[in-house]
Design a protein that fits this description.
With 158 residues, this protein is mostly helical. The protein has one domain: Cytochrome Bc1 Complex, Chain D, domain 2, CATH 1.10.760. The protein is 45% helix and 0% strand. The radius of gyration is 20 Å and the shape is globular. Bound molecules: heme C (HEC). The site of heme C has 23 residues, from helix 3, helix 4, helix 6 and helix 7.
């Protein structure tokens, strides 16, 4: 009887682990839907300001240049995406980047290892960090220096 119980509880434990992972929300949006999303929401932060917060909060995992090679990255599965990879950057919307920072991975169908940062930063600070993340793919070869203030990049004020 004891043996039976042990086997039974082992089976229960195993089936608990064997539960299929939760279905991910559709990553596979059609390109035109992504383009529409991108139009609705744009990152308007200041990358230079964002770099300061990034160094403080994000470097450990994402690495200095956003390549996903921070000191803690070796322990991460999945590895953080390479922010410096322009091809990857082109596949993610501003809204997605901002939401990943604000709400974290779990809320976006991604790894919970990517935390939600809305408790550590206000909206403007999260926009600034998002702008810095974006800037990394635009200057992949160079060190992430603050881009010159580009007045023409700012959305036109009404
Ligand atoms: C504890 C490690 C860790 C820290 C610290 C961390 N991240 Fe992440 N981040 C991750 C991981 C892991 C992923 C990948 C999640 C996945 O793909 O499931 C990720 C994903 C992301 C993504 C989505 C990238 C993409 O293209 O899919 C963004 C944007 C991001 N992180 C920004 C930040 C910012 C900004 C900070 C600092 C405020 C930060 N992260 C801090 C681990 C971390």
């Amino acid at each position: 009887m004891k043996k039976f119980l042990a086997v039974a509880s082992a089976v229960v434990a195993l089936t608990a682990f064997a539960e299929p992972p939760k279905a991910k929300p559709a990553d596979a949006k059609p390109a035109d839907a992504k383009a529409a999303d991108a139009k609705k929401f744009a990152i308007t932060g200041d990358a230079a300001k964002g770099q300061v917060k990034y160094k403080e909060l994000c470097v450990a995992c994402h690495g200095e240049l956003g390549k996903g090679d921070g000191a803690a990255a070796a322990a991460l599965t999945p590895k953080p995406a390479n922010f410096a990879d322009a091809a990857h950057a082109a596949t993610v919307t501003d809204e997605y980047i901002y939401n990943m920072i604000k709400e974290g991975g779990a809320a976006n169908g991604k790894s919970p290892l990517m935390a939600s940062w809305k408790g550590a930063m206000n909206e403007a600070q999260m926009m600034d960090v998002a702008a810095f993340v974006r800037s990394l793919s635009k200057s992949a070869a160079a060190a992430p220096v603050a881009p010159a203030p580009a007045a023409d990049k700012k959305p036109a004020k009404k």
